[in-house]
Amino acid sequence: MQDEDDMSQLSLGNDSALDALVFRYHKPLYGYVYRLLQDEKLAEDMVQEIFLKIYQQGKKGFIPDQFKPWMYKIATNCCKDYWKKASTQQEYVMDEEVEATGHIHSIIDRQLERKWMVDSLNQLSFEYRSVLYLRFYQDLKYAEIALTLDLSINTVKTRIARGLKHLEEILKEDDRKGVGIHE
Q1: Which among 32, 50, 61, 121 has the fewest CB atoms less than 10 Å away?
Q2: Are 35 and 137 spatial neighbours (Cβ–Cβ below 8 Å)?
Q3: Where is the signal peptide (predicted)?
Q4: SS3 at position 93
């Protein structure tokens, strides 16, 4: 209830309540948005926009029943809106995290494995990617994901199962091609 209490305080004019929410959620929210957009600067700008929307809703007196799913719903919608803009409809090309320089020897296997997994996740459609990030990186429960994305719990379960199945196929294909942690 602490998050909802902070929203209540915000609606009463206590602006420091927003500071508590930012302190509590900036890092996980940034992580979620970054994983969807794959751009540090854009993710930081988007997180600021999300907290501005939370602030504006709080000032209007809106207090969500469950803050966390509501916050991630705002984040998901902001990311969807970004991708819908005409200027972002071009094919997204990821920057290589590691170039063929002397730095490759300093990267440990765990980082390479993590990058391989994130790259594989990013090959999934937005529908599968968003539920998997919310479940496994943000640790939301099925019911919270359902609230966040305006889906039924059964649809969330189905998307997670299908997303994991597609991810498994991507990882197996990468393994056959010799892509991944063995690069």
Answers
A1: 61
A2: yes
A3: none
A4: coil
Helices 40-59/67-84 angle, 10° precision: 130
Q: Is residue 31 a contact partner of residue 74, using CB atoms and an 8 Å limit? A: no
Query: For residue 87, what pLDDT is reported?
Result: 47
CB atoms within 10 A of CB 64: 18
Q: Is pLDDT above 50 for 93?
A: no
**pLDDT tens, residue by residue, 70-86:** 999 999 999 888 877 74
Contact 21, 39 (CB under 8 A): no
Compute the distance between CA of residue 135 and CA of residue 58 in angstroms, rounded to an integer. Answer: 26
Q: Which domains does the chain have, with CATH numbers?
A: 2-86 (1.10.1740.10), 106-177 (1.10.10.10)
Q: How many CA atoms within 13 Å lie on the side-chain side of 108?
A: 1
Q: How far is residue 57's CA from residue 80's CA, in Å, rounded to a whole number?
A: 20
Encoding tokens for residue 9?
Answer: 């305080």
